[in-house]
Amino acid sequence: MAIPSLQYRKDLVVMVAWDPAAPLVYTNWCGATSISLTVTNATNEQTVADCDDWSLPAQIIKAYGAQSITASVAASLTKAGRDQLIRAALDQRELPIRFHLIDAEAGEIEYIDGVALLPSLNIENIGATDDNAVITYTLNIDFKNGVELTEAS
């Protein structure tokens, strides 16, 4: 019996290049409590029938169509990051984002990179009555041109 090696918080780090003057200088996404990456593959289908033998039943042919890659970030708002986050969303900035698979071995995916558009930022708990309530946010991300994979060497 083989026990699987599971992945944990420290095994995949999400980084962002906040500074437009230094688009390849990544920092860890501080304050994140949950980050999700979603790959959505559209599929197309067409019903076709045999051209020679019309007595045969029709068949459905399926193929891949367009692909969309999105992410969402749920986080505690940190004082160090709030200004850059709010400015990026309000200024409609395109942010370079990197998913770093820390323990990637040679030939495996080590980095997933993409340019992110920020369609929505929701800041929650602003008027909470508990003095110790943490301000949280949810950021939705659409990757402009998909993502690029880099293998570990």
Summarize the structure.
This protein is mostly beta strands. The chain is 8% helix and 50% strand.
Distinctive features:
mainly beta, 153 residues, extended, 50% strand, 8% helix, 1 helix
Topology:
Layout: E1 12-16, E2 27-28, E3 32-48, E4 59-76, H1 79-90, E5 95-101, E6 109-124, E7 136-143, E8 148-151
Antiparallel strand pairs: 1-2, 1-5, 3-4, 4-7, 5-6, 6-7, 6-8
Task: Give your account of this protein's structure.
The protein contains one helix and eight strands, in the order ββββαββββ. The chain is mainly β and 153 residues long. Strands 1, 2, 3, 4, 5, 6, 7 and 8 form an eight-stranded antiparallel sheet that branches. The chain starts with 11 loop residues before the first strand and ends with a strand.
Q: In percent, how helical is the residue content? A: under 10%
Counting helices, strands and paired strands, the structural category is mainly beta
Shape annotation: extended
Ends distance:
30 Å
- Per DSSP E runs of 2 or more residues, the count of β-strands stands at 8
What's the total helix number?
A: 1
Average pLDDT number: 94
Proportion of beta-strand residues: over 45%
- Radius of gyration, in Å, reads 21 Å
